Amino acid sequence: MSDLAGRLDRCSINTATLGYQLPIGQTIEAVARAGFGAIAPWRRELEGESARLVSRRIRDAGLTVSGYCRSTYIPAASDTEFAENIEDNRRAIDDAAELGAACFVMVVGGLPQGSKDLADARRQVRDGIARLLEHAGAQNVPLAIEPLHPMYAADRACINTLRQALDLCDALDPSQTGTVGVAVDLYHVWWDPDLKTQILRAGHSKRLLGFHLCDWLVPTNDMLLDRGMMGDGVIDIHGVRRHIEASGYAGRLEVEIFSRDNWWKRPATEVLEVCAQRLQTVC
Amino acid sequence: MSDLAGRLDRCSINTATLGYQLPIGQTIEAVARAGFGAIAPWRRELEGESARLVSRRIRDAGLTVSGYCRSTYIPAASDTEFAENIEDNRRAIDDAAELGAACFVMVVGGLPQGSKDLADARRQVRDGIARLLEHAGAQNVPLAIEPLHPMYAADRACINTLRQALDLCDALDPSQTGTVGVAVDLYHVWWDPDLKTQILRAGHSKRLLGFHLCDWLVPTNDMLLDRGMMGDGVIDIHGVRRHIEASGYAGRLEVEIFSRDNWWKRPATEVLEVCAQRLQTVC
Q1: Do A192 and B150 touch (CB under 8 A)?
Q2: From 3.50.50.60, 2.40.50.140, 3.20.20.150, 3.30.10.20, which CATH number describes the B8-281 domain?
């Protein structure tokens, strides 16, 4: 039995897990009713809503915000587009602040249209985040760089290992102000032979801002939308969580499952029930 | 214009590129007729054939063998199965020797059925290759460990980066006898921020035994069978080849494309013609 039994207050639901079936208000109620302590909403759910009102609803429901998803991709084919991407992220950081989010999740983007220059995309990411740091610090919203699985290097994120993300943090914030760190998502990093070492490094440098859970299915039928529920795949979730917590991480354990053909087809209440059960038994 | 213009003799065709449509004899003729200098056959093509006769046909056609594909997966759920896997690889090494292959390509295998213990699978791979080294040395067949893309960590290969493969080589063969090295396949490693450094390292330690080319398509519609023809994707192929050759690699440039819904549906002659054209213009 996991030591999470009876401790759903330590756990969070990333709303993507529910497939965006419900308006944000109902999602908040459902997550709170299921006993979770936190929620991680997406920007698309706040479109046409007041961040302040959503924030109040979340707090009234007794929840905190474990993270706000997610950044506009940074690398661009032109300077104008690059500047727009930065500005877009600045506004999102304002909303993250309004929500009291523990972090703003940075999925940094991949190659600009027509480019084969990964090194340049990575330079743009570094420069882009550098331009956001002061604003993030002023708003008290830590930026959580999320390394994405290497299979997304071209089209979603050119930061692909925890080591690379931490190297970037060190370059951007050598004095460890806490303004920039990492979000560790099991799906993206579980395979990495360097994982344990880098988790320890992240802990020592106070860079662990988020921890996302799901599972890797065999076979995986879709590169984006076939993540598994914890326990249904091959990831040693408990083992990684032990390292994360031994490194000093005291934040929420956030469930984030993209599953078009399975979990997204089920009612939110059922999905939340299974998440709660698995968190308390296999994580 | 690439410096490969007029130098198809430096290039090899991995027979998987042709979708195994023809019997090995016809494949050998087609590859030779198209002007390539080498071929990399698969074990499935030698089933029911005499390795000695196939070897003679390859030589008679004026080709060499850039690599023999590929190892039986090593990690197993039981000691008996593990021993069988080793024995199977020993026999394949004998065939590689008969073919005069420049290397035996090691796709090492992932998690045994029911296991979530990647570290144990990796230990089994190390122990298994250690048991093959003497035989490989005696047969004069270098073992080329191929790091596979992290998306195959569970089911195909738990060696997932060039750094990890080279660490394994160093552990297995600290005195650099040449019996074990790596095959660098662009598809698996192109995303790696550490790639250039590790290619240099492989070159310095004389571990570069093979170099495989294809491209990464955006979008990729199948995790295994949707590789792109060089030039159709986002990999900076010429850039990586420059590093590989600057590191002292003088082996063949081997085209290996798994493409169920595109190239495998076309006649071998057409595929070979396009390979030849792209090698000479975009690689």
Answers
A1: yes
A2: 3.20.20.150
